[in-house]
Amino acid sequence: MTQHAAPHDEQQADLGPDSAADGSRGAGFADARERSRTESLGERILGSLLDRAHLMPPRLVGQLIAQELESIGGSDVSIYLQDYDHNTMQPLAGPGLSGEAVPIDASWAGLAFRTDARQEQEQPDGSTRMYVPMLDGSDRVGVLALTLPEVDDNDRRLAQRIAGLAADLVVTKSGYTDTFARVRTAQPMSLPAHLQWQTLPPLVMTTPDIALAGILEPAYDVGGDSFDYALNDHVLHLAVFDAMGHGLEAAMMATMIVAAYRHGRRSDNSLADIYTHMDDVLGTMFPGRFATAQLAELDSVTGQLTWVNAGHPAALLVRDSTVIAELTGPITRPVGFGEGRARLQTTQLEPGDRVLFFTDGVVEERLDDGRQFGEGRLRELIENASADELSPAETIRRLSHALMDARGGRTSDDASLLLIEWKCPPRDDELARRH
Question: Per-residue pLDDT tens for 218-234?
Answer without folding.
Answer: 888 887 899 999 999 99
